Amino acid sequence: MDLPPVGLGTMAVDDSAVVETALDVGYRHLDTARIYDNEAVVGAGLAASDVSRESVTVATKLWVDDLAATDVRAATEESAARLGVDTVDLLYVHRPRGPYEPTETLPALDTLVDDGLVDHVGASNFTVDQLRTARDHLDAPLAAHQVERHPLFVRDDLLADAREHGYPLVAYSPLAGGQVRDLPELQAVADRHDTTPEAVAIAWLTGTTGVVTVPKASSRAHLEANLAAATLELDDDDRASVESVETERELFPE
Ligand SMILES: NC(=O)c1ccc[n+]([C@@H]2O[C@H](COP(=O)([O-])OP(=O)(O)OC[C@H]3O[C@@H](n4cnc5c(N)ncnc54)[C@H](OP(=O)(O)O)[C@@H]3O)[C@@H](O)[C@H]2O)c1
After folding, report:
1. Which of 173, 200, 250, when mutated, tests ligand 1's pocket best, judged by the most ligand atoms within 8 Å of its CB?
2. pLDDT tens digits for 204-246?
3. For strand 169-172 and strand 57-62, is the pairing parallel, antiparallel, or unpaired?
4. Residue closest by Cα to atom 15 of ligand 1
5. CA of 138 to the centre of ligand 1 (A)
6. 11 CA distance to ligand 1 middle (Å)
7. Which of 24, 32, 86, 28 is nearest to 55 (CA)?
8. pLDDT 10s digits, 89-131
9. Pairing state of beta strands 211-213 and 88-93?
10. Atom number of ligand 1 nearest to Cα 176
11. What pLDDT, in 10s, does the model give residues 193-212?
12. For a Cys staple, 92 with which of 69, 124, 150, 215, CB 3.0–4.6 Å?
């Protein structure tokens, strides 16, 4: 699946004008989820925009209590209705938990692809073993894996799987929920490039082969800065500085 380097994360976005502005400044990938309770907000922003529906990748996620094989169709139809789309471009399993059963849930998702309700199926918060099992039971290619990835938390086994199997790793919480601004190591790199720690974090992610990202932002200034950050080129010393802050602490543990 071909995703742009920077898309819009919408968790906690409750104003459709943010989505409309994002599309206006050039975003073409919108990331939401049923559990964010804002699919209608994202849909309203998309509907109000001059940008054509076809040029935008709309991604949402089935929450854990939607994952019984008998529930996925109704849950997806409801998400699509709230989003105001006929087809969900990318539908993720948000977390492989609860009634998630790969031998049943994944074939049920395949029927949604067959029927045109879903274009691509993705995974989120899977382990390498869970990805392998998913590939065994899903006819459709696994189109993307969305995982927590930012300077404070990196899982390279997941990146290796993405590269080996040729799907994008979608880095969520790329700014560590805003914490990157307080990291002196990132500030030092930012000072060298006359930019911000947020731009450094995004450039470090998008400069990694196989990784795209979905920062959340509200203002036009942040939206524009995050999109532009993908053009910032970091050298090996910059990247080493960013990589020195890793803590192995997740913001979103299981
Ligand atoms: N699959 C999953 O389980 C999962 C879990 C968590 C998140 N996600 C996805 O990942 C997306 C992003 O993660 P996140 O929402 O946790 O946080 P994030 O993108 O790491 O950080 C967002 C925070 O950074 C601020 N910010 C954004 N751009 C900035 C800039 N250029 N300069 C200074 N501050 C800036 C935002 O403030 P303003 O809003 O004021 O601009 C907000 O407070 C989510 O929205 C969601 O789509 C997925």
Report:
1. 173
2. 999 999 999 999 999 999 999 999 999 999 999 999 999 999 9
3. unpaired
4. 216
5. 30
6. 7
7. 28
8. 999 999 999 999 999 999 999 999 999 999 999 999 999 999 9
9. unpaired
10. 20
11. 999 999 999 999 999 999 99
12. 124
Residue nearest to ligand 1 atom 21, measured at CA: 177
For the 8-243 domain, the top CATH level (class) is: alpha beta
Indicate the burial class of 127 (C-beta count within 10 angstroms; 0-12, 13-18, 19 or more). Answer: middle
Q: Which residues contact 247 (CB under 8 A, 6 or more apart)?
A: 152, 153
Å from CA of 129 to ligand 1 middle: 28
> Rounded CA gap, 105 and 107, in Å?
6
Q: Is residue 42 within 8 Å of 58, Cβ to Cβ?
A: yes
CA–CA separation, 101 and 119 (whole Å): 21
> Which residues have any ligand 1 atom within 6 Å of their CB?
9-11, 31, 94, 124-125, 146, 172-178, 196, 198, 214-219, 222, 225-226, 252
| Ligand 1 centroid – CA 146 distance (Å) | 14
